[in-house]
């Protein structure tokens, strides 16, 4: 399978009238089958062909229209440029310019941005998604109707994919540091990742799409993967309605980032505390662990009220995007969820490694490489990746592309170790703190420890020069405290003092900085480092 057309044709033939997408609406739930999805994509592809656009930018909230616009652009032979909707107007304009997009699909929520781009003549066309009318712009539904007429004489009209190596998507990475670069992913890159994941991961029949679709983690492993497997994608329309949508759609699996996993667990404990059931929950966890140690698993029965709150069918929590505290992973597992921690990066389409079984759980590991992907460690400890999922390069940036590879191996910028074939992430190359005595400190390692202090909500560890010239660097912890905890500053200071006693001298925190607001984050909820 080398093209997106092949992917959706296969889905139409195998899963035809099964629900492909479910969307919450005032009138209930709107549903689109795989057969309807195929027709919508092909009709839109036919309409786009007549515009001769090349690259098409895509800006908007998660929606069925968003998926159709992405897929149709690629099926028509074009290249899609998905844009992070939380960027500033200037950043969005920059990406549209840098990508050389000929058109922009944009939802009504971002009409001011669309007008700004149109007025500057940055693109030839603006198309509207998620709305029946839109400032005089042609809507997606109007394009689909026009494309359907074009396909009356020739059902294959508009199907312009002619090479698996052709670029399907240019993804401008948000990143926690540095300048955004356009990652070029071919059709083969993305589909190879899907097929490898299919050999590796066992999922249920329905996912709830929570993370932003512009991010490759969400798009490849929720959208493309579900098309390949015939799974239903229920689209969460707002974080505000997440709990309600869990009940409405009863997903079997969800893709989340560590911050979401931590929030889910925190809410479980808050609800237990509010209902006077915290002690009962602690005793249940103790009993569950004891029974499971001798082969008896009653977790889902024991914690059925918790599972009911998530719709009753949720089993798989697929977690990526950042490091997850192993205690959080272990407790979610003890509550009866299958916790699958993986490692990926946009430049690898994105999945690189994953944990494949609930029988043996490695809560501090990102698992083993998926089929078709190889990993190795450079002398510096940097993780390098090779395989058919690795990007074609950075758009219009040959120097950055050259620097990203080491003899055919992609340099991830992440540091880790490999033990018995299992990958363990230590930190980022850019975040590494090197002391004058040659010692290396990975701030993420200390952050995971400090995050376990109950009064700590978020933390970033950094280093600063000493007051005296030539003096060694000293470590500081910038902390956003949990204000619901009485005297959080006092608790944190005491806990870090105890922690320092157990740490080597060069890893000790010598200064604590408290902040009043949480850290700025990327749309995948990683803290931005400056």
Automatic annotation (TrEMBL):
**Is-annotated flag, keyword Ligase?**
yes
Q: What class of enzyme is it?
A: ligase
Query: PROSITE patterns in the record, alphabetically?
Result: AMP_BINDING
A Pfam match is AMP-binding
Give the AMP-dependent synthetase/ligase domain ranges: 29-395
**Catalytic reaction list:** a long-chain fatty acid + ATP + CoA = a long-chain fatty acyl-CoA + AMP + diphosphate
- Protein keywords: Ligase
Q: Name one GO molecular function term.
A: long-chain fatty acid-CoA ligase activity
**What PANTHER family has UniProt attached to this entry?**
AMP-DEPENDENT SYNTHETASE_LIGASE DOMAIN-CONTAINING PROTEIN, LONG-CHAIN-FATTY-ACID--COA LIGASE
Entry protein name: Long-chain-fatty-acid--CoA ligase
**Organism in which the protein naturally occurs:** Mucinivorans hirudinis
| Upper lineage | Bacteria, Pseudomonadati, Bacteroidota, Bacteroidia, Bacteroidales
């Amino acid at each position: 399978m080398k093209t997106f057309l092949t992917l959706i044709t296969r889905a139409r033939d195998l899963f035809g009238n099964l629900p492909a997408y479910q969307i919450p609406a005032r009138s209930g739930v709107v549903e689109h089958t795989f057969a309807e999805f195929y027709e919508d994509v092909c009709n839109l592809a036919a309409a786009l062909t007549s515009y001769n656009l090349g690259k098409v930018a895509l800006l908007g909230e998660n929606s069925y229209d968003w998926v159709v616009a992405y897929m149709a652009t690629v099926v028509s032979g074009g290249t899609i440029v998905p844009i992070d909707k939380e960027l500033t107007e200037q950043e969005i304009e920059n990406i549209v310019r840098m990508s050389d997009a000929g058109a922009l699909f944009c939802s009504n929520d971002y009409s001011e941005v669309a007008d700004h781009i149109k007025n500057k003549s940055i693109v030839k066309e603006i198309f509207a998604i998620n709305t029946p009318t839109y400032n005089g712009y042609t809507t997606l539904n109007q394009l689909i109707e026009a494309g359907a007429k074009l396909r009356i004489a020739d059902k294959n009209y508009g199907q312009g994919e002619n090479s698996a190596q052709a670029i399907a998507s240019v993804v401008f990475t948000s990143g926690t540091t540095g300048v955004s670069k356009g990652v070029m992913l071919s059709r083969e890159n993305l589909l190879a990742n899907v097929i490898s994941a299919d050999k590796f991961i066992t999922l249920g029949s329905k996912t709830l799409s929570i993370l932003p679709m512009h991010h490759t983690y969400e798009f490849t492993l929720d959208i493309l993967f579900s098309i390949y497997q015939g799974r239903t994608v229920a689209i969460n329309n707002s974080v505000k309605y997440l709990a309600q949508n869990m009940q409405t759609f009863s997903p079997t699996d969800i893709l989340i980032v560590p911050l979401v996993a931590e929030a889910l667990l925190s809410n479980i404990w808050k609800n237990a505390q509010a209902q006077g059931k915290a002690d009962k929950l602690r005793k249940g966890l103790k009993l569950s662990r004891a029974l499971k140690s001798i082969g008896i698993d009653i977790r889902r029965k024991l914690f059925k009220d918790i599972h009911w709150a998530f719709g009753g069918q949720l089993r798989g929590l697929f977690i990526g995007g950042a490091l997850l505290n192993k205690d959080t992973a272990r407790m979610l597992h003890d509550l009866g969820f299958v916790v699958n921690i993986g490692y990926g990066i946009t430049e690898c389409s994105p999945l690189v490694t994953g944990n494949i079984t609930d029988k043996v759980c490695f809560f501090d590991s990102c698992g083993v490489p998926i089929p078709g992907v190889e990993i190795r460690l450079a002398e510096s400890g940097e993780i390098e990746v090779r395989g058919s999922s690795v990007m074609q390069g950075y758009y219009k940036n040959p120097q950055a592309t050259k620097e990203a590879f080491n003899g055919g191996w992609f340099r991830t910028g992440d540091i880790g170790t490999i033990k018995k074939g299992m990958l363990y992430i230590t930190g980022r190359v850019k975040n590494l703190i090197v002391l004058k005595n040659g010692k290396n400190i990975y701030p993420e390692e200390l952050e995971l420890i400090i995050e376990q202090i109950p009064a700590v909500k978020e933390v970033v560890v950094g280093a600063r020069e000493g007051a005296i010239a030539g003096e060694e660097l000293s470590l500081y912890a910038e902390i956003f405290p949990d204000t619901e905890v009485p005297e959080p500053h006092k608790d944190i200071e005491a806990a870090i003092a105890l922690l320092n006693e157990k740490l080597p001298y060069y890893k000790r925190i010598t200064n604590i900085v408290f902040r009043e607001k949480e850290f700025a984050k990327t749309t995948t909820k990683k803290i931005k480092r400056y």
